[in-house]
Amino acid sequence: MRAAFYERIGTAREVLTVGELPTPTPGPGEVRVRLNFSGVNPSDVKARTGSRGGTLTFPRIVPHSDGAGVIDAVGAGVEQTRIGETVWVWNAGWKRANGTAAEYVALPSEQAVALPATVDLAAGACLGIPALTAFHAVTCAGGVEGRSVLVAAGAGAVGHYAVQVARIKGARQVIATVSGEDKAKLARAAGADVIINYREKNLVARCREATDGLGVERVIEVDLAANIAKDLDLLHADGDVVVYGSGRPEIPVPFLPAILNNVTLRFFIVYNLTPRDRARAQAELSALLTANALSHNIAMRLPLEEIVQAHELIEQGRLLGNLVLEIG
Q: What's the CA angle centered on 277, arms 273 and 278, to 5 degrees?
């Protein structure tokens, strides 16, 4: 099969190769998916550059955790009726050597989720990390019904879904931060009530104004290291910051404003969702997808052979949405 892979840590141009690898055979409890699309995420770049550890966990790594395609074979213990099923996959490249940057991937059956026929396969490759992260950030710990929510980077891969889910889940007010007019249009179309260009406006003052001086009740945060001081300043008493990302591994916490306002910091990584949380998120996402209740923002589609360019674009952080590789 055709696949992209790397065998050492380094830049995309130094280490990523596209070539032939053995086609996997599904083991007991596994399915094999003939992939149409592979989703590229910042965590894929971080793994390849060694920012989450300086050594390879496997001698050869086929990157990417997200993808979508059709099950074409099953292992022992899996119903034959799954063959021919269109699916999206999650955690394909998490603690595994073989991810979705390939024509085929074999993985546990539960990690291949039925994709409604009305959903584009390219969108299916954006569900495992961006959509599930957004859904959990919005709905965890009591959710956002009746509450004001600030979505940092509201036009980003996760933020675009988070704005939509917050609106669907009954948020009283959805505020989104952006860095330009094109991103503002995306966040507004997704359902944000208030758009704040953090490069032009005072974020704290604008959030206070938008909430009649009370502050925001939940912040969904993509970069805690950059924003923690502002988050604590704009937060409502007893509010929480749900954190799924940070630009630095260690962050000083302004203790006094946090404790005086009874602030809660909630951290999670989508790879390690509990089985209960993941099952709930998958079921509810499937219902939203079936109802065509979510819009998907595919910023770019590139062929597998251009995986180097894809990784470089993700590193630059300039895309307005998700990037997927088309396989085959």
A: 65
